[in-house]
Specification:
mainly alpha, two-stranded antiparallel ribbon, 2 strands
Length: 338
């Protein structure tokens, strides 16, 4: 006789009854998003610190924002900014031209050219910029006259060194020679990044060596050169403040002169900071677009620029707003002719 406590074997489910849940079925699992508590705490702490700093900028009277407004666009400061831009432009162009020559001298097979270029880079990277500037500023103490003539022979034409190398000239020479040493290594690294097969293919086609460098090597090397060169130019822009030792009226020197007269140190330093931030931002934007141009050889469809992304976002908002205000037209059922 069978026991009444025995469990009946499972049979087929009744028609129309829901199927029993399958264990570990993804459809039956409850999805719980991850809680990043540490990330939330860190974000809240950063927001509080930024809010405190912003509040201090707005409420601390020591900043003297009215003095900042009076001087940030004054004629003296704007003229000093122009001098800073001139020094940066001259040293950048001349420094990278000389640095490119030094880079190819180091890549040359001539041991004389290699040694001279390596020695130049070693010396000018070892001497601080301020020492070089003071040296060139006092060049007349070593050579009171500069001339042209036969080496180790008679001089046919000479001129007073102070008449051709003034204060600005000495600053440009010092900045250029200092910049060239770093530019040479930047260019050399970019050239070495180009595949050697490119030069072999160009040589096989009979392309002259100079044209290989100008039309094949340098355009490809620019993708490796530009990021580091952009950082170097921005550093040079800020490094022009060192020429204050030569009493050149660039931005930092003029700020020092003004707060030396009125004693408003903090707001005048803010003026210099604001201008350096603006100029650095403009250089960063220019670097972005130049890098984007030279990246076309590797990326035929570059990502959209921030301006294009902003325009696309505004266009998306306008489209969403237009659809939200569009009247809803009821859909007639089939066969309804009313």
């Amino acid at each position: 006789m069978a026991s009444t406590t025995d469990t009946a074997p499972p049979g087929p489910a009744a028609p129309g009854a829901p199927a029993p849940p399958v264990p570990d079925d993804p459809a039956t699992l409850k999805v719980v998003p991850a809680r990043h508590y540490a990330r939330w705490v860190a974000a809240a702490a950063v927001v509080v610190l930024v809010a405190q700093f912003t509040h201090g900028l707005a409420t601390n009277p020591v900043w003297e924002w009215h003095v900042f407004r009076d001087y940030v666009l004054s004629e003296t400061i704007v003229r000093a900014v122009w001098v800073t831009l001139q020094l940066t432009a001259y040293a950048t162009v001349l420094g990278f031209l000389l640095g490119t020559v030094l880079a190819f001298m180091r890549l040359s097979r001539s041991p004389v050219l290699q040694t001279v270029a390596w020695t130049y880079i070693w010396i000018f990277r070892s001497i601080p910029m301020i020492v070089q500037l003071v040296f060139w500023f006092n060049l007349s103490a070593l050579y009171d006259r500069l001339g042209l003539g036969i080496p180790f022979g008679p001089v046919f034409w000479s001129v007073d060194s102070n008449s051709i190398i003034g204060t600005i000239g000495a600053a440009v020479i010092g900045l250029t020679l200092h910049q060239a040493a770093y530019a040479a290594e930047i260019v050399r690294g970019g050239v070495l990044a180009v595949d050697e097969g490119q030069l072999q293919a160009a040589a096989a086609l009979g392309i002259p060596r100079l044209r290989q460098i100008r039309r094949i090597v340098l355009p490809q090397a620019m993708r490796a050169i530009l990021p580091t060169a952009g950082n170097e130019i921005i550093g040079l822009l800020k490094g022009t403040s060192v020429v204050y030792v030569m009493s050149i009226g660039e931005l930092f020197y003029q700020v020092q002169v003004i707060y030396g007269r009125n004693g408003r140190v903090i707001p005048l330093l803010l003026v210099a900071t604001a201008w350096y931030v603006v100029l650095t931002s403009l250089l960063s934007v220019a670097q972005y677009y130049v890098e984007r141009r030279y990246a076309r050889g590797a990326d035929r469809t570059p990502p959209p620029t921030p301006l294009r992304r902003a325009r696309r976002f505004v266009r998306t908002l306008r489209t969403a707003a237009a659809q939200r205000h569009r009247p809803v037209v009821p859909i007639k059922p089939l066969g309804d002719t009313r």
